TrEMBL record, chain A:
Database matches in SUPFAM superfamilies: Adenine nucleotide alpha hydrolases-like
Organism: Marinospirillum alkaliphilum DSM 21637
Assembly notes: Heterodimer of an alpha and a beta subunit.
Gene3D superfamilies per the UniProt record, alphabetical: HUPs (3.40.50.620)
Domain of life: Bacteria
Family membership noted in the UniProt record: Belongs to the ETF beta-subunit/FixA family.
Segments forming domain Electron transfer flavoprotein alpha/beta-subunit N-terminal: 23-211
Protein's name in the database: Electron transfer flavoprotein subunit beta
Keyword Lyase in annotation: no
Keywords: Electron transport, Transport
Cofactors demanded by this protein: AMP
Role summary: The electron transfer flavoprotein serves as a specific electron acceptor for other dehydrogenases. It transfers the electrons to the main respiratory chain via ETF-ubiquinone oxidoreductase (ETF dehydrogenase).
Any one Gene Ontology BP term: carboxylic acid catabolic process
Automatic annotation (TrEMBL), chain B:
Required cofactor names: FAD
Protein name: Acyl-CoA dehydrogenase
Record keywords: FAD, Flavoprotein, Oxidoreductase
GO molecular function, one term: flavin adenine dinucleotide binding
Annotated ranges, domain Acyl-CoA dehydrogenase/oxidase N-terminal: 6-118
Occurrences of domain Acyl-CoA dehydrogenase/oxidase C-terminal (ranges): 240-371
InterPro entries membership: Acyl-CoA_Oxase/DH_mid-dom, Acyl-CoA_Oxase/DH_mid-dom_sf, AcylCo_DH-like_C, AcylCo_DH/oxidase_C, AcylCoA_DH/ox_N, AcylCoA_DH/ox_N_sf, AcylCoA_DH/oxidase_NM_dom_sf
Organism: Marinospirillum alkaliphilum DSM 21637
Family recorded in the similarity comment: Belongs to the acyl-CoA dehydrogenase family.
């Protein structure tokens, strides 16, 4: 069974991002970039399926600038067998990404398309769902548990207020939630092996996908700064403030 | 000169920084410090599983075959986390001596175990009053047939408390202070005649003093040509000192970040104290020293594995001098800027400050490096 894992290069989750002075976006100059944490969980799940003998090949695919090969190499150090970079310097919207991934899927014919549920930079949470619609595959989003048996996948989904279990007929698109697994650290020998694994470079034009975005970013603003709290002298004072000032009780 | 890391080096750095961040919080570090071993055996095991204990070891012996840059990346991240594991003492310094001086049999027998983290080494080279001089060796080795008998003492053997095998320098000829006549021996710490007095150093790592009383070492325990190892000891000490620069740099960066955060947070006279120009000047001076230290660490890393030469030694002495100066300056300024909290046992900065001051005395202090730089400059 072949698994295709989509990964995205994003600002490292430890970086405190700053908005550009002209409010056109986030300042990425000299900022550390990493693999999107949810994509890392997706890679880990694919590797675990391979270790269980269910998957036979893992193909990591990323769409982004040339430097996104670093994240593909990381995926290969974690256990992916080969990588595909669809190189573009344009910032792509979810639909364009889903269209490209659908074309890659048509070419690669994977049984499972693993993705992160959303990227930590744009937080759209759309690509998986769009990809499922474009390919016509079954979808299991926000997976916190995945079992694959024969041509069926059982996905425990994290939904508002509880868990939902769905059974999907393969091929399927599955997106990883935070609790699906805890990704491993790449081992040094695997880092060295990753260098030798094949990495293909393509462009959106190779897949005949029009990447022009229909969405325009007008303004990016940092979130409002949190105001300082206050100390109250007694429980009575606290209750009074909650009742009369905050009006929450 | 290209300062960019290769893809593999970048991945190594990313993996290391994440590993230390996830598994070596300050609170965990303090519990490792208080443990019987004085470091985390679980973290050591994890370093081994990730292949990190093999970074400085040759590929032929199960290691990664890393050079100065890889050692720099390793030590910098461990320095940032104030890690207590004896990576510098064992994997870089002592294993470096073994790689350079050991014969095929010794290397094949020992190095794979070192690379896999199963065996820890320590180099016992200094003695009371030796004051960073590797030729000041009073410990003696007497030969009887194929066997050597070692007697004397060794002081402050960093990593010696947890080492499974010690590399001990002893005099087989000449007088105390002669560079000629020094030999290196492999000594098992539990061998008859060895007394190991272990203690924690003020900055965290464990060390020990060794008392050797007619300790028997067979022919297989002699490293290199008897009486002719001094230049190798010096070369490997310089190589280890380059890695110590990186450890100090990681700690300096963390001390700087903690201080900057504190200045932005601590309020006085109705504003964060970082708004005061006098304190901004101090931060700017710290940043300047940190930049110099970064450049000199890169220089040291790029030269550490070069063949021995006066120029290499001179530049490494210069690097160490700048780093020891920067380490003390940043530690002292960070404490000044923090005030009393900077000296608090429960706060990481106090331990960074201690580590930085002690690292500026480890493998040579400011004066030693400056003197060596001046001597080599005069000789050139």
């Amino acid at each position: 069974m072949k698994i295709l894992v989509g990964i995205k290069r994003v600002v490292d989750y430890n970086v405190k991002v700053r908005v550009k002075a002209d409010q056109s976006g986030v300042d990425l100059t000299n900022v550390k970039m990493s693999m999107n944490p949810f994509c890392e969980i997706a890679v880990e799940e694919a590797v675990r399926l391979k270790e269980k003998g269910i998957a036979t090949e893992i193909v990591a695919v990323s769409i982004g600038p040339k430097t996104a090969q670093e994240q593909l190499r990381t995926a290969m150090a974690l256990g992916a067998d080969r990588g595909i970079l669809v190189e573009t310097d344009e910032p792509l919207g979810s639909l364009a990404v889903a269209k490209i991934l659908a074309k890659v899927a048509a070419e690669e014919q994977p049984q499972i398309l693993m993705m992160g549920k959303q990227s930590i930079d744009t937080d759209n949470n759309q690509t998986t769902q769009m990809l499922a619609a474009l390919t016509g595959y079954a979808q299991g989003t926000f997976a916190s548990e995945l079992t694959v048996a024969g041509d069926k996948a059982t996905v425990k989904r994290e939904i508002d207020g509880g868990l939902q279990t769905v059974e999907l007929k393969l091929p399927a698109v599955i997106s990883a939630d935070l609790r699906l697994n805890e990704p491993r650290y790449a081992k040094l020998p695997d880092i060295m092996k990753a260098k030798k694994k094949p990495l293909d470079t393509k462009t959106p034009a190779d897949y005949g996908v029009d990447t022009a975005s229909k969405v325009k970013t007008l303004k990016v603003e940092p979130p409002a700064e949190r105001a300082a709290g206050i100390k109250v002298g007694s429980v009575e004072e606290l209750v009074n403030k909650l009742k009369n000032e905050a009006k929450v009780v | 000169m290209d300062f960019n890391l290769t893809e593999e080096q970048q991945m190594l750095q990313d993996m290391l920084s994440r590993l230390v961040r996830d598994h070596y919080s300050f609170e965990k570090r303090m519990s490792h410090y208080a443990s019987q071993e004085g470091y985390s055996t679980a973290f050591w095991q994890q370093l081994a599983e990730q292949g990190l204990t093999g970074v400085p070891i040759d590929e032929a012996y199960g290691g990664f075959g890393g050079g100065g840059v890889e050692n720099m990346l390793l030590m910098k991240e461990l320095g940032r986390g104030l890690c207590l594991e004896p990576v510098l003492a064992s994997q870089i310094f002592a294993a470096g001596l073994l790689q350079q001086l050991g014969n095929k049999e010794q290397k094949e027998k020992i190095l794979p175990l070192v690379a896999s983290g199963e065996l820890k080494l320590a180099a016992a080279l200094t003695e009371t009053n030796s004051h960073y001089s590797l030729q000041h060796v009073a410990c003696r080795a007497r030969q009887q047939g194929d066997t050597w008998f070692l007697s004397g003492q060794k002081s402050v053997v960093v990593g010696g408390a947890s080492a499974d095998l010690l590399l001990v320098s002893a005099r087989t000829a000449g007088e105390q202070g002669d560079p000629e006549g020094i030999s290196l021996f492999l000594v098992e710490p539990w061998a008859k005649g060895v007394t190991r007095n272990a203690y924690p150093c003020i900055d965290g790592p464990r060390a020990c003093d060794l008392l050797l009383d007619e300790v028997m070492v067979g022919r297989g325990g002699v490293l290199g040509k008897p009486g002719q190892v001094f230049t190798t000891l010096q070369y490997q000490q310089e190589r280890a000192a380059a890695a110590a620069c990186a450890e100090a740099l990681g700690s300096m960066e963390e001390a700087f970040t903690l201080t900057l955060d504190y200045l932005k947070t601590r309020q006085q006279f109705g504003q964060p104290i970082g708004k005061f120009q006098a304190l901004q000047h101090r931060m700017a001076d710290m940043r300047g020293e940190l930049e110099l230290a970064t450049s000199m660490t890169l220089l040291a890393a790029s030269l550490a594995d070069h063949p021995p030469s006066d120029e290499r030694s001179r530049k490494l002495a210069a690097s160490r001098f700048i780093i020891t100066r920067a380490a003390r300056f940043i530690a002292e300024q960070a404490i000044q800027l923090h005030g009393g909290i900077g000296m608090t046992w429960e706060y990481a900065l106090a331990h960074h400050a201690k580590r930085l001051v002690m690292l500026s005395h480890h493998l040579g202090d400011e004066d030693t490096h400056l003197q060596r730089f001046a001597d080599l400059l005069k000789a050139s």
